[in-house]
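Session log. Operator J.P. requested a structure for one protein chain; no other inputs attached. Running the standard single-chain path with C-alpha cell output.
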Amino acid sequence: MQSHERLSVAQLIQRHRSERLFAQAPLEESGLRTLSFEELATATNFVAHYYHQLGLEPGDRVGLLVAQPLDFVIHFLGGISAGYWMAPLDPTLDYEALPSVDGHLAALELTAVMADRTRPPTSQLPWHMAEIAHREEGLASNNGGILLSSSGTTGTPKTMLLSQDQILATATNISRHNALTSDDIGLNPLPLWHINAEVVAVLASLVAGSQLVLQRRFKRTDFWKLVRDVRATWINAVPAIVSHLSTLRDGEDVPDGVRFIRSASAPLPAEIIRDFEATIGIPIIESYGMTEAASQICANPLDGIRKAGSVGLPIGVELQCLPFESDEALSSDEAPRVGHIAIRGPSVISHYATDAHAHRFTEDGWLLTGDLGYLDEDGYVFLVGRIDDVINRSGEKIYPREIEEVILRVNGVIASAVIGVPHPTLGAVPLAFVELDATTDEQRRVICREIAHVLDGSLGRSKRPTAIRVVDAFARHATGKILRQPLRQADVNVLHEELLS
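Structure written below.
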C-alpha cells in the first residue's frame, strides 16, 4: 500500500467492520469486556457526534484522561477519526494535587478535556465526561492526529503534533515488519497514554485487523497464564518487563504460540537477550523509536539476522550518523565510528508545535535525535547513549551504556545506570548506580565486589566507575526507562556505597 493509498483511521475501522463482522477488537484482560469491529465502529461514530454536540470542532486539541483501556481506545480512535488532535494524559497522576499539571495542560493549548473524573478546581479548561453510547452515522476526517509533550524534566517541554498520515505510516510499517495478520492476538501491558502503545499496539493492530488485549498495567503474577488464556501471539514490552519475565516462578511454564516479544523504550543488553531467549524460548525483537518519529525508527528483523547489541535496521525512515562538528554523514561502509543519529522521513516531524528546540532540525530537514550511535557494514544501528549522558574524562569520551552492560552481567544485578560526576582535575568521572536482588548489607557488599572484579577485567582504568552506589529502586518513566536526573541531583535513597580504586 503506497502512502497516497493509505486509509484513514475511520476508513480502517469501516473496512474491518464489513469484512470481519464478528471479529474481536481491543479487549481488556479480565475478559469481561470485549468489542467487535462492528461495535467499535458504532462507538467511535458516537464519540465523533458527541464531541461535535459539545461545541468542539475538528482541528481542536482535546485532552484524553481515561484510565479504563477500552474506553480510552474508543475515544482515542473516535476523536482522531473525526479530525481532532487527541492529547493522551497520564491517568495515574493526581490532577488535583499537582500544581505542575496546570502548566502542562496550558502548554498543550487544549480546547477541552475528555475525562473519567470531574474537573479539578484549579483547571480553567472545560472538562467533559468521556461518555460512550450508540449512533450509526459517522463524521469521518483525514485530518487530526495525536498531540504529545515531553515531561520537560531536562529542559523546556517539547510539544509535537503527529498527523493521521504520520502515525498510520509508522503503524503500517510496524504491522508489515511484524507480519501481523487477522489471526494474530497482541498483548499490550504498556500505558496507553504513551506513543508506543498508541501506535505499536493499537494502530498497528487496527491496520492488520487483528485482536489486541489491553492490560491497564503490567502484572507479573499469572502473566503467563494470561498469555495462555487469551492465546496471545505477540507481546509489546519494554526492558523492565523482559527482566521481570526472564525467570519462571514455581508452577509456571511458557505457553506455545507466542511468535515474538517486541522490546522498546530503552536499550536491552545483549547478554540479557541471550539469557532470556535461552530460558524462555521466545525471540526478543529489539527496536528503537521516539515520539518525534511516531514511535518506531529501527527494529531487528523478525525472520533474519538479529545482531547482539543492535536496535536493528531503519524502517520507513532515512537515518545517518553525523560527526559532532561536521555536516558530513558517516556511511555504513566505513569503520564503526560514533556520531549523532539523525533521521527524516514521512513519519518524522519537521518542527515542534512551538519555536523551542528549532536547533534540532538541520537546514536539509534532518532531525537530530540526541542519541549517539554508529552503523555497521550491514547498516545495522548500534546506540551508545544520549549526548547529554556522555562523560568527558580529560578529553576521552566515555559512554555509560558500555559500563552498564558490563555491570549487568553480574548475577543479582537488576538494573544499572551510570552518570558523570565532576572531578577537580579530570573534568568528569563515571559513577555507577545499581538496583540489586539483595536484602542484607552483606549480600550487597558481595555483589558490589563481584561487580568491581568484572569491571576490572572488562574495562580500561579510565572507564571504571569511581564508586558503586546501591539504590532501593530507580525512578522510572511509565515505560520502565530509568530517569537519570534524580541520580544527578542526589535525589535517591542509597543503601550501600562501594568505593573503587
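Operator note: The chain has twelve helices and 24 strands.
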